Amino acid sequence: MKIETADRLRVLPPYVFARLDELKARAREQGLDLIDLGMGNPDGPAPEPVIEAAKAAFHNPLNHGYPPFEGTGSFRRAITDWYNRRYGVSLDPDREALPLLGSKEGLTHLALAYINPGDTILVPSPAYPPHFRGPLIAGADLYPILLTAEQDWLIDFTKIPDAIAQKAKILYFNYPSNPTAATAPREFFEEAVAFAQKYDIMLVHDLCYAELAFDGYQPTSLLEIPGGKEIGVEFHTLSKTYNMAGWRVGFVVGNSQIVQGLRTLKTNLDYGLFAVLQTAAETALSLPDSYLQEVQTRYRTRRDFLIDGFSKLGWSVPKTRATMYLWVPCPPGLTSTDFALSVLEKTGVVMTPGNAFGAGGEGYVRVSLIADTPRLGEAIARLEQAGIHYHMGGG
Ligand SMILES: *Cc1c(COP(=O)(O)O)cnc(C)c1O
């Protein structure tokens, strides 16, 4: 029997992480002590009160059955209360908020709920892979918006051809950004809303790094912008802020019609989030701000330490205002894959090649701040020992 996947799988570009994983496995077999700064996977446990809330919730027999499709009322209220507290945005917990099995799930399913084969979809390059892989699975005709360092990795709306904008159905975007760590000023969000209104485009904004912001910087929510909620939705996650990546809890908020379309698709696919996790997530969202400050201090300290270490090796990496990443240029003449693989082979330090995030990421590697400073110090020491400097060029 000939076994063939559907076309929707065959259109996906090769997964750059696969080759990296292979090399990582081989390095481990050889006994190399890997310092993995490649993933966006926070390195600590969930906060203690969240774990305690989950433990208690396990003992309630009512939590063991199928949960309501659209999440418990109290989790949805916790989400909208949190948006109100953080952004001054008021939302209807019944129609404008939906829990997700992680935001990756929601982002990808939103594409299936709203994109027909051949629809033009605008996605920046580089971008978080689900922002383009979801549309590709849905059969989208992708229009990549090339981002550059010169433009501070912001979308330049004036460069999107009128004919493309006329056809486009959805724009995905993400600030503070993975992988570039770029942040966008409020005026940028106003431009995005004006652009979407002019061309009748749905905005899908990913705000998953909103709490990992430093030096007093406060990220903007699309929903704070007048008109934002009429035209878009915003995705959020507990994975990063609360070290809950393995728990799979995220949510989407915003335009009720868009949210309800996603809900309709999901009622055919899943049964929503385990009630125990919903109770735990409510606890996370109601933690005092001192918890967030602790998280911010942790990542800010690592950021400063690593930027300092890189500068000693000849790299000048601008100070980031948010996220858990540094976006680092490769030495001249090396592709991002060649550079990342050579660093891995010589030092056991894992970085993600920028082209994993689309062609616009070529020439860069992403370094995650997911190790403590002694470990980051060890990474810098190994790079130095292996003679990996910015100005060296070549291998
Ligand atoms: C990590 C990340 C997410 C979170 O995904 P979950 O599925 O909620 O764990 C979403 N968006 C971006 C841009 C990310 O980097």
Structural class: alpha/beta
- Helix share, percent: 40-55%
By DSSP, the count of extended strands is 12
Q: Provide the β-strand percentage band.
A: 5-15%
What is the CATH topology of the largest domain? Aspartate Aminotransferase, domain 2
Which segments are poorly predicted (pLDDT under 50) over 5 or more consecutive residues?
none
Instruction: Give the CATH class of the largest domain.
Output: Alpha Beta
Which small-molecule species are bound to the chains here?
pyridoxal-5'-phosphate
What is the CATH superfamily of the largest domain? Type I PLP-dependent aspartate aminotransferase-like (Major domain)
Query: What is the molecular shape?
Result: globular
| Mean pLDDT over all positions | 94
Order of helices and strands: HHEHHEHEHEHEHEHEEHHHEHEEEH
What's the alpha carbon Rg, rounded to whole Å? 21 Å
**Strand line-up across the major sheet:** 2-8-7-6-5-3-4
CATH architecture of the largest domain: 3-Layer(aba) Sandwich
Q: Quickly count the domains.
A: 2
Biggest sheet character: 7 strands, mixed
How far do the termini sit from each other? 46 Å
